[in-house]
Amino acid sequence: MFLTGTLALAFTGFAHAQARDQTIYSALPAQITAQYQYTNNNYYFRQTNGSLAQTNLNGMSAEVATRWFYPFEFLGKASYSKGPIVGQKFESFTAGAGYTRLIGRFQPFVRITAGMAETSSSDTQYLYTAPKFRITEVAGGGVDYGSRHWGIRLAEVDVQHLPYGSRSSVYTSAGAGIFYRPYKGHVATHTWPWNHSMMHDMVKP
Questions:
Q1: DSSP class of residue 164?
Q2: What is the phi/psi pair of residue 20, to 5°?
Q3: Measured CA angle at 153 (ends 64, 108), to 5 deg
Q4: What residues form DSSP beta bridges with 199?
Q5: Selecting from 3.50.50.60, 2.40.160.20, 2.60.40.10, 1.10.10.10, what CATH number does the domain 23-201 have?
Q6: Quick one: CA dihedral 106, 112, 118, 124, positive or negative?
């Protein structure tokens, strides 16, 4: 009798441990993010005195990401930045997909997007006499930290390819900002071995 009870308790503990291991996040809330963005270009502009100056840009970006298919995400992003050299302005509008994981209150992510970009300046930079739209591709990643609704984007780094000029261009951006989640996400807890599931809030108050 004692042996039977011991085995039953051991099996129950094992089942509970397995149930914890089988916790699967089914959906995270959508997220709206705004951030400062610093952009470094891989080319230099020759000034009137003959010296070379690298064109660096400062600006803002905004994005909306939906994570109903966690750990995958789908997002759209718009950015605008400008620099002091030859009045350069740069805008891009991209959309794509990424992969993210929730680790406590931290949420690292990687993503790939593509879309359209426009550049302009006060001279004939890129050999164009007027602003031009071109296709652009972006690969990047970063990490967020926050609570149920509010948080901060600790860092994000993006590498953006642009088909401007005879050799094309690569813009490297780094930024940080804040985000807002308008509603709560959920997790599905599968209890092994009966595969029974229930829904409950993702983040405690």
A1: -
A2: -65, -40
A3: 85
A4: 188
A5: 2.40.160.20
A6: positive
pLDDT for 198 equals 34
Residue 92 Cα to chain centre, angstroms: 15
**Domain limits, the chain:** 23-201
User: Which tokens belong to 41?
Assistant: 């270009």
Instruction: Give per-residue pLDDT as tens, 154-187.
Output: 999 999 998 766 667 888 999 999 999 988 665 4
Determine contact, residues 151/144, Cβ cutoff 8 Å. yes
Question: Count of CB atoms within 10 A of residue 120's CB?
Answer: 17
Interatomic CA distance for residues 86 and 124, integer angstroms: 9
Question: What is the number of residues in the chain?
Answer: 205
- Predicted TM-score (pTM) of the model is 0.72
Single out the residue of 29, 37, 34, 28 nearest to residue 138, CA to CA: 37
* Segment (H or E) for 8: helix 2-21
CB 80 within 8 A of CB 94: no
pLDDT of residue 165: 62
Which pLDDT band, with edges at 50, 70 and 90, does 146 fall under? Answer: very high
For the CA atoms of 37, 41, 47, 50, the dihedral, rounded to the nearest 10 degrees, stands at: 140
Beta bridge partners of 61: 35, 79
Per-residue pLDDT band at 72 (split at 50, 70, 90): very high
For residues 42-58, average pLDDT? 75
